[in-house]
Amino acid sequence: IALKVKESGFSGISIIVANPVDIITRAYRDASGFSDQKVIGSGTVLDTARLQFAIAKRAKVSPNSVQAYVMGE
């Protein structure tokens, strides 16, 4: 994918949302040749949202009322 994106002439910022995000982000950056400023990994944002949703479902409350964060892979 990275090579096709580069070959297309894309000059924007790529945001990687996949697990394991750190490894895939690095591989994408290396394969594309884009700078660190042009490739961003979502970090634990997606995992945090999943955790908050799971807690909210179990507690039968709105996910907006749950404050929980995932740290690390």
From TrEMBL:
- Extract the signal peptide range: none
* Organism expressing this protein natively: Mesomycoplasma hyopneumoniae (Mycoplasma hyopneumoniae)
Instruction: Answer yes or no on keyword Cytoplasm.
Output: yes
Q: What is this protein called?
A: p36
Key words, A-Z: Cytoplasm
UniProt-listed Gene3D superfamilies = Lactate dehydrogenase/glycoside hydrolase, family 4, C-terminal, NAD(P)-binding Rossmann-like Domain
UniProt superkingdom: Bacteria
Q: Name a GO molecular-function annotation.
A: L-lactate dehydrogenase (NAD+) activity
Question: Is Cytoplasm one of the keywords?
Answer: yes
InterPro entries in the cross-refs: L-lactate/malate_DH, Lactate_DH/Glyco_Ohase_4_C, NAD(P)-bd_dom_sf
**GO BP annotations listed:** lactate metabolic process
